């Protein structure tokens, strides 16, 4: 009855929005039906990458083989969001052992770059581009760690489709063409080396538009070296030497030795129970536990009596976000350098104390007191019940602007996310992993896999994860509707980079949120704004244990696709 009332409400207040859909089933904002399959499912932000993953599954590969193959393809096909110059995180449900595993494949800061360097140069913030924010790229080591533990097919076969597309070319999709046409001119304007040679010269001297063929033979050659020589070909061979030499020439600090010393880390995922569903995230240096903190606070409210998209819904969500993000700013960091009080932050008692601070109007909060020291997301599931939730990124879209010669990829600028204020959890130190925004997620129910999902998009990600969980659990949406539903976020407040809270921030909404909600939020003292394209890129796979069927969903705001068989 509640869903029928909401449907009538949307039709009444937002006729122009719903007329664009005209679907005869499901929520009015749904863009498509769920994809269904019994043997396997792949959901990525690019249809060709999805098909590559599906082909691997059909040829006998498992979910991890398919995920690596699709991620390699995305590094070629969506260079505006990911690539082997960046980091990787993954959560794996292993169908064989019926256990959940977590991988932190993020890189560390250069050993020879110190906090004193920034202080000597009167720098209060790490630059967003150039050689200084470049940290060790962890993605390739992440591939090989996943493959060593769970993979079945040889890496030469796994990387072959991406190599073939890089050499022969593929047509650019609408969104990626749009981003490339804006990103490449920006990097060229900064006079960064090798931009033209890598992204333009290889394509007949012109940056392709939508539907035009894009090639990257340099990346094909790099992938070929990795397929043949393994992870050491990247971290200890000519590739590492080329990266180290190039960054030194540009005035940076990342060295071949930094790459040689790199290693990923298998970690224990952490969870909270939200109304009978166990929601899993990875512990810091990522921000995944912010979503868990939000859910811990929000489960104290009865959303069966609160409509989706209402002022009360957005108000409670926003206040929970503010509280969690204040803790994020104070406590989240590389746990090799700072004892993050994860257990305390996720406890019911702590959530109750934080929840008690929420009132009827927009609030301004501080971190709690505890006794303690553009990205891609994709997911794959196979016929054996293994599911992988994987996220991979360069940060700030394409990354730092640093493109080593003839390697075909840009290095990340994750080092920007350190604080330069002494004494903070996330203060810069050599060989330290920066605070990280990219986070994979997973849901289990009664000890069985339920949903592998993620939502990319910087600071939005914990908010996106929380919205997906609430859409599924509280508002009864199916997997595709949960991603298509209008989104909202909150900006402002403290950050792990040293910023402090000065006001109550701003709620930003997509067009599907009705004006009556906006008006209700204003009445509660919230500031309202709009922004284009910050609401992430969702992919999801759900396992129906009763019927033994996978449900797949893909982000309607992107170019992607879910496909199963």
From TrEMBL:
It comes from the Bacteria. The keyword Transferase applies. GO terms for molecular function: glutathione hydrolase activity; leukotriene C4 gamma-glutamyl transferase activity. This enzyme consists of two polypeptide chains, which are synthesized in precursor form from a single polypeptide. SUPFAM superfamilies: N-terminal nucleophile aminohydrolases (Ntn hydrolases). Keywords: Acyltransferase, Glutathione biosynthesis, Hydrolase, Transferase, Zymogen. It catalyses: an S-substituted glutathione + H2O = an S-substituted L-cysteinylglycine + L-glutamate; an N-terminal (5-L-glutamyl)-[peptide] + an alpha-amino acid = 5-L-glutamyl amino acid + an N-terminal L-alpha-aminoacyl-[peptide]; glutathione + H2O = L-cysteinylglycine + L-glutamate. Transmembrane segments: none annotated. Cleaved by autocatalysis into a large and a small subunit. Pathway: Sulfur metabolism; glutathione metabolism. Belongs to the gamma-glutamyltransferase family. The keyword Transferase applies. This is Glutathione hydrolase proenzyme. The lineage of its organism: Bacteria, Pseudomonadati, Bacteroidota, Flavobacteriia, Flavobacteriales.
């Amino acid at each position: 009855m509640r869903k029928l009332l909401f449907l009538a409400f949307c039709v009444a207040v937002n006729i122009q929005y719903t007329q664009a859909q005209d679907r005869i089933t499901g929520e009015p904002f749904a863009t498509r039906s769920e994809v269904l399959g019994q043997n396997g499912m792949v959901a990525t932000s690019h249809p060709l990458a999805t098909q590559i993953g599906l082909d691997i599954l059909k040829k006998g590969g498992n979910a991890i083989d398919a995920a690596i193959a699709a991620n390699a393809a995305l590094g070629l096909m969506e260079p505006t969001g990911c690539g082997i110059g960046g980091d990787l995180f993954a959560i794996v449900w292993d169908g064989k052992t019926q256990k959940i595993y977590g991988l932190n494949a993020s890189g560390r800061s250069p050993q020879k770059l110190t906090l004193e360097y920034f202080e000597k140069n009167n720098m209060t913030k790490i630059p967003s581009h150039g050689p200084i924010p470049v940290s060790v790229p962890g993605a390739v080591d992440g591939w090989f760690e996943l493959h060593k533990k769970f993979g079945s097919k040889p890496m030469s076969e796994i990387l072959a489709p991406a190599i073939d597309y890089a050499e022969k070319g593929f047509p650019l999709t609408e969104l990626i063409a749009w981003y490339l046409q804006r990103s490449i001119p920006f990097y060229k304007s900064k006079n960064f080396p090798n931009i033209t040679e890598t992204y333009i010269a290889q394509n007949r001297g012109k940056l392709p538009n939508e539907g035009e063929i894009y090639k990257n033979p340099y990346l094909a050659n790099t992938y070929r070296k990795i397929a043949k020589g393994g992870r050491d070909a990247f971290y200890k061979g000519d590739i590492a030497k080329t990266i180290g030499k190039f960054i030194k020439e540009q005035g940076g600090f990342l060295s071949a030795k930094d790459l040689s010393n790199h290693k990923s880390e298998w970690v224990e995922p952490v969870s909270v129970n939200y109304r009978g569903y166990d929601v899993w995230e990875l512990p810091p240096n990522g921000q995944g536990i912010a979503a868990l903190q939000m859910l811990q606070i929000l489960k104290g409210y009865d959303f069966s009596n609160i409509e989706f998209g209402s002022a009360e819904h957005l108000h409670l969500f926003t206040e929970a976000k503010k509280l969690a993000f204040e803790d994020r700013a104070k406590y989240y960091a590389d746990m090799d350098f700072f004892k993050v009080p994860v257990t305390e932050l996720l406890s019911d008692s702590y959530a109750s104390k934080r929840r008690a601070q929420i009132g009827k109007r927009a609030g301004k909060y501080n971190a709690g007191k505890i006794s303690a020291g553009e990205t891609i997301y994709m997911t794959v599931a196979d016929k054996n019940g293994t599911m992988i939730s994987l996220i991979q990124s360069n940060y700030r879209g394409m990354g730092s602007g640093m493109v080593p010669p003839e390697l075909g990829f840009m290095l990340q600028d994750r080092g920007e996310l350190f604080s330069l204020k002494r004494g903070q959890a996330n203060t810069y130190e050599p060989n330290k992993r920066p605070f990280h925004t990219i986070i994979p997620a997973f849901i289990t129910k009664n000890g069985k896999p339920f949903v592998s999902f993620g939502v990319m998009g910087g600071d939005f990600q914990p908010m996106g994860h929380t919205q997906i969980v609430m859409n599924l659990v509280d508002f009864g949406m199916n997997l595709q509707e949960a991603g298509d539903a209008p989104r909202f976020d909150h900006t402002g407040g403290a950050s792990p980079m040293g910023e402090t809270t000065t006001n109550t921030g701003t709620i930003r909404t997509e067009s599907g949120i009705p004006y009556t909600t906006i008006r209700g939020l204003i009445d509660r003292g919230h500031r309202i704004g709009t922004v284009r394209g910050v609401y992430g890129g969702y992919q999801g796979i759900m396992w129906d244990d009763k019927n033994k069927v996978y449900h797949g969903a893909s982000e309607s705001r992107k170019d992607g696709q879910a496909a199963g068989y």
